[in-house]
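Good day; I would like, with your permission, to put a structural problem before you. What I wish to show you is a protein chain and, alongside it, a tokenised description of its three-dimensional fold. Here, with my thanks, is the record as I have it:
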Amino acid sequence: MTPQLFDDALRASVAQNLALHGAGSGPATQAVLKRAAVCVIVTADAQGRAAVLLTRRASHLNAHAGQFAFPGGRIDADESHVEAALRETREEIGMALGADAILGRLDDYPTRSGYLITPLVAWAEADTPMRANPDEVAAIFRVPLADIDQPGSPEFVSIPESERPVIRYPLLGTRIHAPTAAVLYQFMEVAIFGRATGVAHLEQPVWAWR
């Protein structure tokens, strides 16, 4: 992929692609899952290339410690998914975004650990202040879109425990798995390339089934 410039044309294209996609909610059978929301933040790296923000969760957390994730978390009873995603973004990486930063949403993704994640796509100017909250986040990464869209990436792997393919991305010197990998894949497919691609069928590795 040719490095994508972080500019107004990209913002307009992402918003249009998301509007045309018409994101799907989880089916009624998943109503018992706990609700969560994450923020897929489009911004720029130091070279002005379009990038997304990923965090590495703090190593002392009780759940999913050390894993790569988008800013996000559980939706409180009095919140919308937009409010939750923006609140969690403030709490985890100190980035204050308004509702007008939201460009659209992706499909809900059900996790093996009992959550139904709603991904919101947001736009943040390159100089928007942010700082990792050490209680929750070990590091923040600006990952260029060109690094995500590489030959042979993402990887789809078969496992004996499931008929569904496990998705993973070789990024940041490791392999990033679903749910983050599934959300990242749909973001690239739908928001960047304008392709109608679902991800609810994509599996997580067995060690994430808790």
Remarks:
- The chain has a mean pLDDT of 90.
